[in-house]
């Protein structure tokens, strides 16, 4: 057991800002799996997700001084870093070109792999209890949050994908986040 296992979040943050190696190891040991679950929802390849996670923890280590306790919790800050890194990776020109140049057999195999990994990602999302909350949303709200947060679509792209006017998407997204906020309050 880590000598840091009973630290408060505030003490952990102070140690991380002092670049304490044990604190960083503790952070990795306790948060890597749930951050990996977030990344896997966006980056479909396990190999690429592992690369993104490494990048995420490098960013956390380098930029922990930017974390502001007044703006939220450490875990929320780390999830945003993980999500943004995964979205950046997925939208990178090299990844898009790689996907365009795949033989048909690879695309079919990837879709089958994605179906299997979707079940794994659902289990990982459930690790942090978020899947249960998402499942309580109205279906049209859940789809919008999943497309925006986990798949990285902009509201314009969601409107195009669902063939719904952009104004409707914006209204529904706002309603979805309000519903999610209510569910999260009840969850505590």
From TrEMBL:
InterPro entries: RNA_pol_sigma-70-like (IPR039425), RNA_pol_sigma-70_dom (IPR014284), RNA_pol_sigma70_r2 (IPR007627), RNA_pol_sigma70_r4 (IPR007630), RNA_pol_sigma_r2 (IPR013325), RNA_pol_sigma_r3/r4-like (IPR013324), WH-like_DNA-bd_sf (IPR036388). Signal peptide: none annotated. Residues 27-93, 134-181 form the RNA polymerase sigma-70 region domain. The keyword DNA-binding applies. SUPFAM superfamilies: Sigma2 domain of RNA polymerase sigma factors, Sigma3 and sigma4 domains of RNA polymerase sigma factors. Keywords: DNA-binding, Sigma factor, Transcription, Transcription regulation. It holds the Pfam family Sigma70_r2. GO terms for biological process: DNA-templated transcription initiation. GO terms for molecular function: DNA binding; sigma factor activity. Belongs to the sigma-70 factor family. ECF subfamily. PANTHER family: RNA POLYMERASE ECF-TYPE SIGMA FACTO, RNA POLYMERASE SIGMA FACTOR SIGZ. This is RNA polymerase sigma-70 factor (ECF subfamily).
